Amino acid sequence: MKKYVVITGASSGIGWAAAKKFAELGKSLILIARREERLKELKKELLIRYPELDIVIKSVNLMDSVEVEALFDDMDRYFIEAWINNAGLGHYGAVHEQQLAKTKQLLSLNIEAITLLSILYTRKYHLEEGTQLINVSSAGGYTMVPTAVTYCASKFYVSAFTEALALELQEAHSPLQVKVFAPAATKTEFGQIANNRKNYDYDEAFGTYHSSEEAAELLLELYQSNQIVGLVDRESSSFKLMDHQFAYAGDSSINQKLD
Question: What is the DSSP letter of 57?
Answer without folding.
Answer: E
